[in-house]
From TrEMBL:
One of its GO terms (cellular component) is plasma membrane. It is found in: Cell membrane. It holds the Pfam family Tetraspanin. The chain crosses the membrane at residues 113-138. Coiled coil: none annotated. This is CD82 antigen. It comes from the Eukaryota. It is a multi-pass membrane protein. Belongs to the tetraspanin (TM4SF) family. It comes from Bison bison bison (North American plains bison). InterPro entries: Tetraspanin/Peripherin, Tetraspanin_EC2_sf. CDD domains: CD37_CD82_like_LEL. Its main location: membrane. The gene is LOC104982780.
Length: 152
């Protein structure tokens, strides 16, 4: 999973409505993290690092509790005029969460593993019951005498 996320971060483009990018923006905003291991994963994105002003991933922006209820912003954001430094786009100047998402996502998966497995087992049982019912019906249909039915 880590290689998928790092590839996504590396190829992330501003303004692209790709579903995978939107999903990752949602994860970063809801879990309050940035990047996979740390926010420095975003330094591998050439589009972001080629910016001359301080620009950062919008979904990584540190926010208040009230902002958490809103939909996460997408793409890249610039630091408001007057707050920038003269150092170019230095990641240390980004107003983002420093912690990566890897540990938080893994923790969420471990906490919800029982529910995930329960749903998978439930779906498998329903599918098996459907398969047995269809086999039973097929056997019953073939055992009927259809010689009296007119053939066209």
């Amino acid at each position: 999973m880590g290689s998928i996320v790092t590839k996504l971060i590396h190829n992330y483009t501003d303004g692209s409505g790709e579903n995978l990018q939107e999903a990752w923006d949602y994860v970063q905003a809801q879990v309050k993290c940035c990047g996979w291991v740390s926010y420095l994963n975003w330094t591998e994105n050439t589009e972001l690092m080629n910016r001359t002003s301080i620009t950062f991933p919008c979904s990584c922006k540190k926010s208040d509790e009230d902002d958490a209820l809103m939909m996460p912003q997408k793409g890249f954001c610039e630091v408001p005029f007057g707050n920038e430094t003269q150092s170019g786009n230095n990641p240390k100047d980004w107003p983002v969460y420093q912690e990566g998402c890897m540990e938080k996502v893994q923790g969420w998966l471990q906490e919800n593993l029982g529910v995930i497995l329960g749903v998978c087992v439930g779906v498998a049982v329903i599918e098996l019951l459907g398969m047995f019912l269809s086999m039973f019906l097929c056997r019953r249909v073939h055992s009927e005498d259809y010689s009296k039915v007119p053939k066209y």
